[in-house]
């Protein structure tokens, strides 16, 4: 009888300990989720603030092109950025002017290296490829370093805007690359619907480290 009582007390004690452990674990998980959620919200808020600052800079500043590239990207891993363009022209036949974006890899820092496997630079790696006369994702998909990039868009007369972009580098070796982003404006300040020809409008060079 005494052994049964002892076993019962032991079982009750084990159950109590288990309940306490589950409770503590639940509180711990809740705390971690709360902290992680707060961190995620903080990052999202900060990115939103940066985007608004860039939008204000494009609309009121002197820069025609604003593009903050990632300082470093990992092969195959997406990285978010923005492209901001300010329109200083006016369409004589309407209220919008057409623009195109082209991102090019000029050359790797390693002598004899290639921008894309089998393709030494310069080579378009995002947006509209003016050499091949088509969007990179369609005319040279192996060289496409963007999963999201608005390559052509209309901007209202004398206004600017900012567009999200996602860079995902692939088909390259780890290296440091000399890069260039170019903005082209429709000749005659026409809208995209007019299927216009384009001329150079703004350009920036940058360095991208790929690991």
Q: What is shown here, in short?
A:
This protein folds into 2 domains: 1-61; 64-210, Immunoglobulins (Immunoglobulin-like, Sandwich). The protein contains 2 helices and 11 strands, in the order H-E-E-E-E-E-E-H-E-E-E-E-E.
Number of strands: 11
So, CATH architecture of the largest domain? Sandwich
Describe the biggest sheet? 7 strands, mixed
The low-confidence parts are 2-12, 14-19
In round numbers, the mean pLDDT is 83
Roughly how much helix do the residues carry, as a percent range?
Answer: 25-40%
In N-to-C order, the SSE pattern is: HEEEEEEHEEEEE
Assess the beta-strand content as a share of residues: 35-45%
Give the helix tally.
2
Specify the CATH class of the largest domain. Mainly Beta
Supply the CATH superfamily name of the largest domain: Immunoglobulins
Structural class: alpha+beta
**Count of all domains:** 2
Q: What is the CATH topology classification name of the largest domain?
A: Immunoglobulin-like
Distance between the termini: 70 Å
Word description of this protein:
By secondary structure, the chain is an alpha+beta fold. It has 2 domains: 61 residues; 147 residues, Immunoglobulins (Immunoglobulin-like, Sandwich), CATH 2.60.40. The protein has 2 helices and 11 strands. The strands form 2 sheets. Strands 2, 4, 5, 6, 8, 10 and 11 form a 7-stranded mixed beta sheet that branches.
Question: Which key terms come to mind for this protein?
Answer:
211 residues, 11 strands, 2 helices, Immunoglobulin-like, alpha+beta
How is the topology of this model organized?
Elements: H1 2-60, E1 65-66, E2 72-73, E3 79-86, E4 96-108, E5 123-129, E6 134-135, H2 136-139, E7 146-148, E8 152-156, E9 160-167, E10 175-186, E11 198-210
Parallel strand pairs: 2-11
Antiparallel strand pairs: 1-3, 3-9, 4-5, 4-8, 4-10, 5-6, 7-9, 10-11
């Amino acid at each position: 009888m005494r052994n049964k009582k002892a076993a019962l007390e032991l079982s009750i004690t084990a159950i109590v300990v288990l309940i306490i452990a589950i409770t503590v674990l639940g509180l711990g998980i809740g705390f971690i989720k709360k902290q992680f959620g707060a961190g995620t919200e903080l990052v999202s808020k900060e990115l939103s603030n940066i985007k608004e600052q860039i939008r204000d800079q494009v609309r009121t500043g002197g820069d025609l092109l604003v593009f903050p590239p990632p300082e470093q990207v990992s092969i195959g891993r997406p990285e978010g950025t923005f492209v901001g363009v300010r329109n200083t022209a006016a369409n004589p036949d309407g209220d919008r002017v057409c623009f195109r974006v082209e991102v090019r890899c000029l050359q790797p820092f390693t002598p004899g290296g290639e921008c894309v496997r089998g393709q030494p630079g310069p080579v378009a790696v995002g947006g509209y490829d003016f050499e091949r006369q088509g969007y990179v994702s369609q005319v040279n998909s192996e060289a496409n370093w963007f999963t999201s990039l608005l390559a052509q868009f209309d901007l209202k007369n004398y206004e600017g805007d900012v567009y999200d972009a996602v860079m995902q580098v692939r088909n390259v070796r780890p290296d440091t690359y000399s890069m260039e982003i170019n903005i082209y404006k429709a000749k005659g300040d026409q809208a995209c619907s007019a299927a216009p020809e384009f001329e150079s409008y703004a350009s920036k060079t940058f360095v991208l480290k790929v690991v």
